[in-house]
Amino acid sequence: MSDTLHIAISNEAASVTVLQLTGPLDANTQKDLEEKANEVIDGGAKHIVLEMSKVSYMGSAGLRAIHAITKKLGDDSDNAIKSDDLKIASPSDEVRKIFKTLGFDTYIDILDDLDSAIASF
Amino acid sequence: MLLKVRAGLSELEKIREFVASAANTMAVDEKLVGDLKLVVDEAATNIINHGYQGKPGDIEIEMRASGADLIITLRDHAPVFDPTSHQVPLPKSPAEEEKPGGFGLHLIRNIADEMKHRVSIDGGNELSLIKYNAITL
Predict the structure, then answer these.
(1) CB-based contacts of A118: which residues, under 8 Å, 6+ apart?
(2) How far is the CA of A40 from the CAs of A12, A116, B25, B48, in angstroms?
(3) Could B17 and A1 be called an inter-chain contact, meaning their C-beta atoms sit closer than 8 Å?
(4) Domain tally for chain A?
(5) Direct distance between the N- and C-terminal alpha carbons of chain A, in angstroms, rounded to an integer
(6) B47 contacts in A (CB within 8 Å)?
(7) Distance CA A5, CA A23 (A)
(8) Highest mean pLDDT, choosing among A8-22, B27-41, B79-93
(9) Domain span at residue A112?
């Protein structure tokens, strides 16, 4: 298995940028996701969907990266109850379980498919 | 089954593959393999980031059976740290870890049935994570 995280960027709707992730999202690849997200946010992205159906593994480092992205998007999450600018699409059951165990499922919308995630903004 | 790696984040994939492969060889319940990869990855990440703090080092991971129980032991030579003595409540807001590595420890405690730490004879850390009835007999 590859130990790199591949990130494909597409603009699926006028104001929604989709980052499709392929590979492991761990402490080794956390910075790759944060850097790529920073680039698109600096380029003007306001709403981001992380499409996670091809994420082979995610640990707590993935949630740290996701939190960093929500902060960068302007949802200052230290006090925010919910992030409105970042949505998660189609995670595997294992990945979904990590969100739930660490309480992130109440903080970020997790949608079953990409279209619903794009339509949810 | 034993794996020795240098303490680097780029070794995490190899560590997870070792856990999956050893679990398969040891007839561990396949439904547990994802959780076991997670706990070992989180424990190793904490050793690399918070134990060695980026300095060179080594990590040894051993998986063995004790009856139907699985014992996973991680050994390192970072400064002594006993994660079992630290309270890590889940932060009120999921956004902030109150202590570095707290999310990882929370996941480990959520999955492992027992967690034991001791200082080894040579002064290193020995962390054992135990999962009851993990071996299918």
Answers:
(1) A12, A13, A16, A18, A49, A89
(2) 14, 21, 44, 30
(3) yes
(4) 1
(5) 34
(6) none
(7) 5
(8) B27-41
(9) 6-119
**ipTM, interface predicted TM-score of the complex:** 0.90
Instruction: State whether A102 and B90 contact (CB < 8 Å).
Output: yes
A75 inside domain = yes
Find chain B residues with C-beta within 8 A of A104's C-beta: 94
Please check whether residue A1 lies inside any domain of the structure. Answer: no
Nearest to A28 among B10, B94, B95 (CB): B10
The CATH number of the domain holding residue A60 is 3.30.750.24
Q: Tell me the chain B residues in contact with residue A107 when contact means C-beta distances shorter than 8 Å.
A: 93-95
SS3 A11: strand
Q: Are A46 and A73 in contact (CB under 8 A)?
A: yes
Of A24, A59, A79, the CB nearest to B42: A59
| Structural domains of chain B sorted by starting position, each given as residue range(s) with its CATH number in brackets | 2-131 (3.30.565.10)
**Residues B30-53 pLDDT 10s:** 999 999 999 999 999 999 999 999
3-state SS, residue A43: coil
